[in-house]
Design brief:
It is a single chain. This protein is mainly β. The protein has helices at about 5-15, 275-280, 330-340, 360-365; strands spanning about 20, 25-30, 30-35, 40-55, 55-70, 75-85, 100-105, 105, 110-115, 125-135, 140-150, 150-155, 155-165, 175-185, 190-195, 200, 205-215, 215-225, 230-235, 245-250, 265, 270-275, 295-300, 305-310, 310-315, 320-325, 325-330, 345, 355-360, 370-375, 380-385. It has an eight-stranded mixed β-sheet, with no helix packed on it. The radius of gyration is 26 Å and the shape is elongated.
Length: about 375
Amino acid sequence: MSRLLLSLLVLLSLTCALWANDGHVVGEGGRVRFMSGEDANIRMEQEWVNIDVYLKNYTVNATFKFVNDADTEQTVEMGFPESGGGDGGGGLTPGFISFTSKVDNVPVVVERKLSRSKNRGDGDYQAFWVKKVTFQPRQTRWVQVAYTSPHGSMTAYPRDYFGYIFTGGNWKGVVTSSELLVTFHNPGIWLVQSYVVELKQEDNRLYQKWENWQAETGFFASFAPAMPGTLVKKEARSPAVQKHKAFLITNKGSSGVVERAPAGLVRQGVAYVKLDDVVWALGGYSVKPQRKVEQDWNGETNTVNLRVDNMEYTFTPDFAEMVVNNKLDDKHNTYMQELSGKVFLIDDPDKKGEKLMYVPPAELVKALKGKYEENLEYSTIDYSF
């Protein structure tokens, strides 16, 4: 198993119950583990993974096409791995709501067996759902699994998580094709952020297809209620959990309460950023900031005064200017003049009765001598100083 996949498994096992492809397993003392290396005869030729996301849980329906390349009968133990759940029971308590499996559309008995590993932190799975499948010479068999799992969550972030791990690498050869389709049924507007796997969007569906690959990677996504036009700021993360894109998915109905104001918003095709986040990026809330940064808010006049070193910026919904050493700065006010009339306020969803100010970042970051980029198609912005 690759280091990338191990890193992802450790992260995901802390957040939600996860599942993966049927793999070839072997038993040791009543417990099971993945077989090392590849099976010499059985090949996973194709797979289709459909994930349906609902408000309280998500369901997965996966279909695998297996082929016996041998001229003799073959019997293998297939194990569908289970990871996570956060139950603290060492794998004794299942992390799923329901689980079933079929072979050639006929229901089969599956047995939940604990993993050989006793240390969940090493990236191994906590249990496997095991069944025996017999192949006649050169036979093709269709294996299906279906399960329902609760969302994962992290206390520090008001969002839910779900994922799927592709673990087809211990079958013979490569997988000819794998298709992933995620459909969101939640009403309202949702911000979805994908990790590791780069997805594409069509309406309320996210999808991807791979061809001639080892089928060894993980799919991981977070989602939360969102405002129209929500933007997210790129984050510096390890390659194992790199955020590729953000998607806004809109269905009929209300998505409920938005618990945190977004890093950015799009209004009439223009990106805006939360001024508080700019202050964070400048180091205004750090214990030992590299620059002298102060911010004052006047709720009566809806005015923000931002002081950075010897520069002072004044923002209202109708006016913006820049002062350097107590004097108006004509050079940089060409940027600030572009901000006038473009600043707007929203109610802070996290602090009742307070306001948050949003400003066009391109002009502001130029005035602050920083770097800025945006990709409105993928709902992402990024800036640094």
